[in-house]
Amino acid sequence: MEEQRRIVGLLDRAAEIRRRADAARAKARAIIPSLFLDMFGDPATNPKGWPVTTVGKLANVELRNGISPSKSGTVTGKVLTLSAITRGAFDAAAFKESLFAAPLAPEQSVSRSSFLICRGNGNPELVGRGTFPTADMPDTAFPDTIIALRGVSGELSPAYLSALWATDYMRRQIKAAAKTTNGTYKISQGGILSFELPLPPLPLQTAFAEQAQRLEATARALDTAAAKAEAMAAGLSAEVFGDSPNRGNSHG
């Protein structure tokens, strides 16, 4: 009985760690939009008077639709699912094994330099959501429900573009450009090229990126802490409820 009380106490502590880590993680990530508004102002009103351009007028912009797996393909590979880019942060684990007609070309694979945009979804709130991958994944394709935006790093820092893209200002443009067919909402490359963007000086964007990266690093550390607490709670629960995979085999 004493041992059970001790374990229940540890479970309570693990749950409290998870709650605190979740709250701190959410707070760290919530600071980034506030930091964006403080440094650049609301893009809808542009109070700092930054020059405004369109995606299509950026010097080296390139858009590319992803590829579809082939049912008759013979080349094995991986392809992202939409959840990799529609949950607020890139999820490198959101992929599935697939077959392709040919080996992936470099421009068809996931790259940290590509801003990946959800091209179509039944949920209008997910259409147009975008993020940069956190790593190069040369063996993983992005599907035809995703558009890759490339070649903008000379004028837009990844952190600035990511934060700008999540604003209400950009969401209004995305929703206005989205078309619906049979319950699926889609945006086109032409629609993306027409989106208007404020262009603050690149050094200011870089300063924002450095602060945003520190906040993201804090959030990732809290993610790790929450995962460890979750694992500890799972192990303790197994002990309490007697469902440990090794339980019952200790006597040979």
Automatic annotation (TrEMBL):
One BP term from GO: DNA restriction-modification system
The keyword Manganese is assigned to this record: no
InterPro entries: Restrct_endonuc_typeI_TRD_sf, Type-I_RS_S_subunit
Keywords carried by this UniProt record: DNA-binding, Restriction system
Source organism, top-level taxon: Bacteria
GO MF annotation, one: DNA binding
Gene3D superfamilies tied to this protein: DNA methylase specificity domains
Coiled coil: none
Keyword DNA-binding attached: yes
Protein name: Type I restriction modification DNA specificity domain-containing protein
